[in-house]
Write the structure tokens for this entry.
Amino acid sequence: MTGSSDAGVAPTPETVLARINRAGLDEPLFVAGRARAPSLEQGFLRRDFRCVGATGEEPLRQVRWSGQPVRSDLDMFLAAYLATPDAARGPLLVLSPPGGGKTLLLSTLAARLPPEHFTVIRVPLDAVNPGAPVSAQVHEALWQATNGRVSWPDVGLFDDDGYLVLLVDGVDAAARPGYLSEVAEFQRRESLLGRPVAVIAATDTGLAGRLRGPDGMPVLLLEPFDDERIRLWLDTWNAVNSADIAAGRLNGVGADTAGLPGLGGSPELLTLMTLVLAENGDALPRDGAARYKAVLELMLRRRPAPVIPVEESVRLLGDLAITTFHHGLDTVGEDELTVEPHALRWLMRCPFVSVSAGRSYGLLDSQTADFLVADRLVVTLAGREPFPGLQAMLSHRVLAARPRVLDFVAGLSIGRHDLRAVLRAALAEARGSAPPPPVLAGFATLTANLVLLAVTVGDTADGVAVTDLMPPGADPGWAWRCLVLAWDAGLPRPAWHAIVDRLELIDGHIVERTQEPADDEYRSVAEARLRGETSLATTIERGLDQRGDPGRGMPDTPGAG
């Protein structure tokens, strides 16, 4: 199938295609600016995946991945698949989030499948007429790749032992739900003509929801990078750029120095993060939250041809993070997002966003989601948002249940003591009228979140005085006790317990708790102390200790009196 290489003998179409595909291994993975990008051969990492079979002609949004095992044998799986007759009866579909490595996988397959057994044709649908029949798209892709030297009827006619493989990238560009069934019909006709063709297609997970495929079509979902693959990628990057790193022109990037979990889970994100750290490492903030923010914004700025400004990108990601936080879910449906159509299209193709085939949106990583919630809160407070805006953001879920959000808030608000004045004013407005029972949960959530933020913002270790948060002229101890009792009455038990584990009252100041969370038996002691009922807390603790387990008691803590 490789054809003759003798002088004066024209190469066969199969030889031309093999040369083109093999040359892709030497191409850089991306445009790297001052740095050197690893080649495809150097930088491609084998991926973990899950696999299911599509059912009938139902849209792919019906596919359920939960419960499917994660596999590490992608090479063996694809080799075994291409060796079966089923490969010529219908396509195999590869899914991943945007920037998840589908195109890299197809490029690597094209280059590494042995040309003596396979003739591989890449068909990028965004580069051909997406409305044309499948055979016309293949012909156009061949014409473009070979400068008109190879046409579709000529391929596969020189060696009956060869096997044709089409790699169709960007199936969503075809813009018709039945495209994969058209591919299967194309394969059926080619088999009848004596030229069996295997097809491996790929598209973004979120764009696959409206597609349908033939019954039993294999569907693969590529898994995010794990820590080991991130380490391997960074080792490769440092080796390729070792001369510039040694000369001080670039920073080395190690898994132990990146310190940015959640920003490197996909090939595109890991690439962007590496570039930002290599080029800007010395100039980036050292603090965790400020560093996270700077790297995230630089990564968005480095994305090729951004269609919206970075500031709007961060706002859209923050909108998504806040919406999922409010619902207490990892993802929300498209109808829950109040964004313009162009913004929804951007979210659908953003590598930080995970979009299911059923059009549910969420952040790819929970740490990134927590950071974006914290960033939105700090930006909102710094902008002196009117009370209704804060009320809408803080009346759904208690922040103590997501402690990482508060940790990020603390880092983002260092030195911003003015934010406490905003929170004090908001808390006073929230207390303005006693809520009727149906809205007690919202009142409790809102006031608890305002207090949690007031304790968290700034960089002082002594917390915030009860007298600063309670109404002027009122007994601060009594007012505080009433507020804490409202939390106890209005919040779900996990949220209330999260507050008790996060806050304590010491010498009239509300501070972040430094002790280990109380277990269930001793939580009543921590609850009494948070209310300022020190004598009651001591009495309960002594009673528990006298039951025969004195080592579990909690140390006395002075309260508000």
